[in-house]
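Notebook entry, structure prediction.
Reason for the run: the old model in the group folder had no record of what sequence produced it. Starting over properly, with the input documented here first.
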Amino acid sequence: MEVYKAAKQARLEKFEIPSKIKLLPEPWTPDSGLVTAAFKLKRENIRKAFADDLAKLYA
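New structure, fully documented this time:
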């Protein structure tokens, strides 16, 4: 609920406010394979690693 309140205070539009989020305990590092050495997202690796979680969030 705090995310929603902060988004409203920032005057975000409804489509800009996430309806569901999942917090992860481990950071994304180049060693994890989820980002490059320049910390750019490796989108395909992320999709594969979190396929189940993404399916649940968008179900």
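Summary: The CA atoms of residues 34 and 43 lie 8 Å apart.
The old model has been moved to the deprecated folder.
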